[in-house]
Design goal:
This protein has 176 residues and is mainly beta. It has no helices and 16 strands. Strands 1, 3, 4, 6, 7, 9, 10, 12, 14 and 16 form a ten-stranded parallel sheet that branches. It has a six-stranded parallel sheet with strand order 2-5-8-11-13-15, with no helix packed on it. It is elongated.
């Protein structure tokens, strides 16, 4: 007869210690990957080369959002949904395929793969990609237009011309 407090002659198997629980990953703790764009019903990402953001963070308006208001700030904005209002940022604005923006834009660089209905008041560089549609006037230093894109409005680019005087006329280089 065996007594319960005595070790048995047969070897007992010792259970393995439980694995420590993995930390929960939340959107608040996770640093966003600028190359990742996976939001379930997200619009396709333009196939342009990924841009490494070394000068600030990028905010995203997801494809399933509709927002009305005004955006102002120093960062970068990526719109995959719908936005109605003005966007004035010191950084870059990207309008994804399937996205629509209704309002005026002032940004350093504007990339349009979706739709923009409004004026671009001042930009260093504007890229109108093949899927891009713009209805409004555009003023930029540099303009890149892909085949297949559409635009209705007036365009003024190359405004950084050093030979232009204050009244808008080019000065001659000859001395009088």
């Amino acid at each position: 007869m065996a007594i319960f407090n005595q070790p048995s002659a047969a070897k007992r198997e010792v259970p393995a210690p439980p694995e420590p629980p993995k930390p929960m990953e939340t959107a608040l703790k996770r640093e966003p990957d600028p190359n990742e764009f996976n939001l379930g019903t997200a619009a396709p990402v333009s196939r342009a080369a990924p841009v490494e953001r070394t000068d600030g963070k990028e905010s995203l308006i997801a494809s399933d959002l509709v927002i009305e208001g005004k955006i102002e700030g120093a960062g970068h904005i990526r719109i995959a949904g719908r936005f109605k209002g003005d966007v004035h940022v010191q950084g870059d604005l990207t309008i994804e395929v399937g996205a629509k923006v209704n309002g005026g834009v002032r940004a350093r660089k504007v990339v349009i793969a979706g739709e923009l209905e409004g004026n671009i008041e001042s930009a260093q560089r504007v890229e109108l990609l093949a899927s891009g549609v713009m209805v409004g006037d555009l003023k930029a230093e540099t303009l890149i237009v892909a085949a297949g894109s559409r635009m209705k409005g007036q365009v003024e680019f190359g405004a950084g011309d050093k030979n232009a005087s204050k009244n808008g006329k080019a000065e001659s280089g000859a001395a009088s």
